[in-house]
TrEMBL record:
Record protein name field: Phosphodiesterase
Pathway(s) per entry: Purine metabolism; 3',5'-cyclic AMP degradation; AMP from 3',5'-cyclic AMP: step 1/1
Residue span of region Disordered: 391-420
Origin: domain of life: Eukaryota
Gene Ontology biological process terms from the UniProt entry: signal transduction
InterPro entries, per database record: HD/PDEase_dom (IPR003607), PDEase (IPR023088), PDEase_catalytic_dom (IPR002073), PDEase_catalytic_dom_sf (IPR036971), PDEase_CS (IPR023174)
Enzyme Commission number(s) from the entry: 3.1.4.-
Keyword terms of this UniProt record: cAMP, Hydrolase, Metal-binding
Domain PDEase positions: 70-393
Pfam families: PDEase_I
Gene that encodes the chain: Pde7b
Amino acid sequence: GDARVRGQTGVLSERRGSYPFIDFRLLNNTTLSGEIGTKKKVKRLLSFQRYFHASRLLRGIVPQASLYLLDEDYLGQARHMLSKVGMWDFDIFLFDRLTNGNSLVTLLCHLFNLHGLIHHFQLDMVTLHRFLVMVQEDYHSQNPYHNAVHAADVTQAMHCYLREPKLANFLTPLDIMLGLLAAAAHDVDHPGVNQPFLIKTKHHLASLYQNVSVLENHHWRSTIGMLRESRLLAHLPKEVTQDIEQQLGSLILATDINRQNEFLIRLKSHLDNQDLRLEDAQDRHFMLQIALKCADICNPCRLWDLSKQWSERVCEEFYRQGDLEQKFELEISPLCNQQKDTIPSIQIGFMTYIVEPLFERWAQFTGDTPLSENMLNHLRRNKAKWRSLLHKQHSSSRSNDHSGQVTGSQEQTLNEEETP
């Protein structure tokens, strides 16, 4: 079996009985033809396979993106959208198109300015821009879901949460900067596959982090590497930068979905006992962790048009992993079998067991603010829509079992249901 698998483009190690190193070019379907493309694409393909970031700055590579953010050139609609960046109906897909794929850089520069962070921390704008370009470019654009647009979406949600009165009244500039940076970088260099995939293929990162929060540890360490490389915070005292790096790690590691119950139990205990003291840095940090967790999985709480796009994207990424697992005769991971795991069923389960419990507690913390009520209303409506689509799928499946085909009118009905 090993010899046959090794023959498939030689992407597996020669060691018997293991899959220690799958070439992640396979994760990009467009590269299967053998066309790697530009140097930029090659850098991205190699990015996940390195332990440390090679120094772009020492090699004298200047970011390709224009420094138009320093001028008054936020032209037209993009600038208008930024004026409404705190609105929950913010369309990050449109914003990404308007900024020519630079949504993360543009958004972060604006938010750092909006929150007064550039002035407070005496940040150099050119250095900030260079750092953000590094972060944005280390996301894999070929990932349907875990890409820079997702990072920008999470950052915009985090901005909304940081403005909730219950939290905003206590936040320091450091808290705000940590929240925005963690949101922007929380999935940096994500390979488009999950932790179990890395473990069962014996990837070096799984060994490096001993199978614990493998991806989250990598996102954190990659972020620290870019922070140091860019020297964005080099002018701050060493103890301050060390504290920032550790807190960023604590925030990013909190996004590990395997720790969901741990954080929910702790949040429930705080809320039931009413013992949160946001004057204390430790409690503020915990609520920043909760806010980031909410921002990371807030897609079901968005408007249906946006929520549906995200649902389709994340399931496409799941299915690609399943196809890869099938190709190498690995057990197909849960939710990754396109033949069995439908988008409506995946989303209904995700909303029921992961999203609803967290956002109900968040609403309890914020005190049923307009934003929290809005999110819960969207969540309930979106879940109802997915249930309706699931029912249609089941009806169609039963109809196919009886007739062997879907009639023209049935197909039209299904298409109409799929259209938001």
